[in-house]
Amino acid sequence: MIIAEWKPIAEVVARLKGHRKILVAGCATCVAECAAGGEREVESLAPLLRMALAQQGCAAEVVTATLERQCEPEFIETLFPKMEGVDAVVSIACGIGIQTLGDRFDPVPVYPGVNTTSLAVREQPGVWAVRCEACGNCVLGETFGLCPVARCAKSLLNGPCGGTRENGKCEVNPDVDCIWLKIYERAMARGKLEALLGVQPTRNWSNSRHGGQKVMIREDLRA
Amino acid sequence: MSTKAGTRLEQVLKAGEFAVTVEVGPPKGPNANAVIDKARMLAGIADAYNVTDNQTAVVRMSSIAASKLLLDEGLEPVMQMVCRDRNRIAMQSDLLGASALGIRNVLCLSGDHQKASAGGKLKGHPGAKNVYDIDSIQLVSVVAGLRDRGVQEGGDPITEPAPFWIGAAWTPLAPPTAFRVHRLAKKVMAGADFVQTQAIYDLSAFGHAMAQAVDMGLTEQTFILGGVIVPKSAAMLRYMHRSVPGVVVPDVLIERMAQATDPLKEGIEITLELIAGLRAMPGVKGVHLQAIESEHLLPEIVQAAGLLPRPKGA
To answer: So what's the ipTM on this one?
Structure first.
């Protein structure tokens, strides 16, 4: 799922000064799962903003709403009744939701209340770990289902750098496994070391962010 | 002898001489004299001089510029190039530029991650955007393409081949150790003419790794130089063991330094023992010496190791 985390309140408040009526908009999908942008978080963020703005002499009315999905135009339509008099929105959906709202409500500014970080899995309660960079050129078939693009600090494609720690962790982050060690171990466990012995050639990153904005078109699904 | 780039390092190795390379860190500033002074201090003690490329991700004078300053002083540089900061376009452009300046040895490295800079006393740039468009093994193959096939990575021709002697690094003792020799093999397959290892303190563990390399025939295809970092104190050895990736320091060596009345003298003694051990090891064709921020110790060490005078090169 897409994960996000709250921005520092001070950063959000700084954007909101001067606005009179603010809508805090949540999303009940991914960001709710990772406890950043669901209904509960909306209801705890709103009073914090009210208080912080009042303390700074910028008291504003703060109303709330949580959509099933902020990334889908159909769901966004249901927000219109709430928009009466609103002159700023704080969205705590992922970056997709924030932009979709922003387009629909233009010229009312829609500010991010979260930083969208990545595509991750919940490893254990309270711990999310990145598993995919949406790089558009999947190598999982060659790397035994473990992604070195997302999970190696250097996105190496030919095995571990020299920095693997004695305990098998990454030189950059002592809490993170060296994913190439894991790939190697999985290859060995499956008796397929030879899959890692060839030189992986330079990679085409053009279907990643590096190719400009990605747009996918499925003619068979177009209206 | 037939050569690929005709560098002194290539000729010394191919002549069967035990090669010596030493590391020269460029300054954190624009002063050419900082490089020139080191060059004059170290002239004649090595066959080639490694110029690091923003090591630990701290900004220093560029490896290309410092390499050129060494050349002007009559020293042969090994220009290091890391994948952290440049994409394949910038790298190839820099390689062609370096070649035009007369730089002929290049060492291809993945490079310390930008967060490595925050691990020491300096701030560095841990928030920098990293590149890692290609990895060190792919960089070796890109340089080989510029030299052997006269083509850029994308396939476009270059006007004439760029004659590089291509190097790579090997960290034999980092986990997973059983895979490290295979990764070395990949570097050789990609076109690494010579290999400099991470600093070795455990000769027996390294001997085991070298035996694997010999068995796999890698020492017939590439020249391996064993890395040595001159130890100056027990604290330095402990730090390297704990914090420098792939450096394994046996307890007995740390203890020996801790007991020494003159640690620097003991460190030089250990360095000489390591050099002798590497020299006697099957498949090892030279040493790569580093005396981080204490380069002045190197002339005495190379002399005492019986490695002077260096053979005449090109």
So the answer is: 0.93
